[in-house]
Amino acid sequence: MTNYADIIALKLNLSVQQVGRTIALLEEGATIPFIARYRKEATGSLDEVQIAAIRDALLKLKEIDKRRESILESIDGQGKLTDELRAQIEKAESLQELEDLYLPYKPKRRTRAMIAKEKGLEPLAQALMRQPDTPLENLAKPYLSSERGVESVEDALAGARDIIAETVSENAGTRNVVRNMFRRTAQLSSKVVKGKEDEGHKFESWFDWSEAAMRAPSHRILAMFRGEDEGFLRVHVLPSNADEVCESIERHYVKNRTEAAEQVRMAVKDGYKRLIEPSIENEYRSMLKERADKEAIKVFAENLKQLLLAPPLGQKRILAIDPGFRTGCKTVCLDAQGQLLHNETIYPFTSVREERAAINKLEALVEAFHIEAIAIGNGTAGRETEEVVQRCLFKTKVVAVVVSENGASVYSASDVARREFPDYDVTVRGAVSIGRRLMDPLSELVKIDPKSIGVGQYQHDVDQKMLQSSLDDVVMSCVNSVGVELNTASRELLSYVSGIGPALADNIVRYRNREGAFSCREDLLKVERLGAKAFEQSAGFLRVRESANPLDHSAVHPERYALVERMAKSVGCDVQTLVDSKEARGKVDINQFVSDDCGLPTLQDIMKELDKPGLDPRAKFEVFEFDKNVSKIEDLREGMVLPGIVTNITAFGAFVDVGVHQDGLVHISQLANRRVNDPSEVVHLHQHVKVKVLEVDLRRHRISLTMKGCE
Description:
By secondary structure, this protein is an alpha/beta fold. Among the domains are: 4-88, Arc Repressor Mutant, subunit A; 108-170, no CATH class; 171-310, Orthogonal Bundle (Tex N-terminal region-like), CATH 1.10.3500.10; 318-439, Nucleotidyltransferase, domain 5 (2-Layer Sandwich); 633-706, CATH 2.40.50.140. It has a five-stranded mixed beta sheet, with helices on both faces. A five-stranded mixed beta barrel has the order 11-12-13-15-14. α2 (16-27) packs across α5, α9 (122-130) crosses α11 (153-169) and α15 runs parallel beside α22. The two termini are 59 Å apart.
């Protein structure tokens, strides 16, 4: 059996013990958040990123072993598995090595070489490979046969060359020579498809482009491949000097200066152009695509993490508005728990009279429902609606905040929304979602497919399985780092809690609806199908605010409750006093409680949690306001300095909303007065920034911004 721990430890520069124990925990069904938080002694305090890397490396190694077994079985079934070949296959460390070894034995469609072999020309090919000083006619004549369709010497030689070309193309050593040449000299190039210049104008930057493939940035690779997929570009990944590559292969096969050697040279050249080059080009295209996918997904994942962990306003009574010009502004009032209290539509943009009526209505709703904050969607008519709200004269202080609508329409038409609001249409559901996002972005955004939230680039072009896995990891990490209130959380939020999943989340909600609120964490064990393992994985991430046990409000795991009780007893108090009294906690000597399964990392986590039980790790909410003199792109002028919010981060820069319904781009070169390799070094999602307008292209609706000198 493959020693996975040794291989992964070497690759990730970790100890074999760390990796081995992490693998054991993963294979027992432990989740990454649980291992990172509650099994630090076992893993040597590995973080979630390192644990995910171990998991991914393990899956890859298992995939290689599965393919290895399949290949051995296939070749053995053909009766061609020699001891030497078996040893080579068992020694292979990558899928590429395995596929190279398998290539000569891989079932394939009928090729030119197969047809030549059927005509009995394989011995002639072998004779040519020996490159004797024998006239070609003498070598070929014995193989002429009208019955087999070999009418002439040239027919025989052509068939033999086809066999040699395929043999050369399937040789693992030859393919590695070509790969090395690709690695050193391959160029990523693109040309416009003739006649598509006007239709494909958005790809005009790549109509005649070439650069070193290995240095091409991910966003450019994905853009060019998208242009090709849409039929506007032809893209190639080829060595800069194909003749040099061909000559390097010839040196391995052409050993003499005979006529037969010249036939081998012709076959090698044909094999390279017809078989090897297209095959290795496909490999390198796939490799570039995979690399670009990984980089794009990494950016997407980081953006999603920042979005999910955006500061919440908290439990406030909210009036939320989904703006619209002709169709009106759908307006809803929510209580502090996000429950819908009232909805109606106002029409502030149809006439002066209706505008006055809308203002009166907003003032009345704020007073009637004791509204503390107003959430305004940032889509069509968003800035105009904000201006209407600013003209209202409220009797109490009310905060007005513009909220991103990205994904709200997806939520409003989803099964989740229909289940929550079966009696309301999509416009009401959308407005509710906008309001809830202000209260708690994480709780609301988990209801939407992350790909629909609008914080990535090329999300539809990258490997969807890889993207989904990465985004699921991010959502689970965020949900568990914040913690979830067991008695109020939605099914969707609960499903991301470590060890829960959709089925148990449904069972928890059904139990809660039937039996009432959970009084403590231990009540979870009464939920149908929620056993000891699921309890172990989930309990530490769930909060029960109403519990009599203060530890149920915290991230202290129930498996450590007895330990905390011993701590309290050691300083002569109970657990509640230990939580309430900094003086009491200061007397605890955690070194007294170190044991084989509970070391200092866990004890330090416990003390930190007792200091601030259930502390939300998210930043404090800050109100943001756009420039009141700017509401549409036509209002922008070069040189203007404006407040903005970072809405998206890419490999080439950051997009900033300045309140004109079109985000502007701060190119990576304009983020700071220094060289920046990664935009996330300078900005983060939802950051409030100052930007200067560099250029406005009204025709293409493009805004160029800079952050240089705007501090």
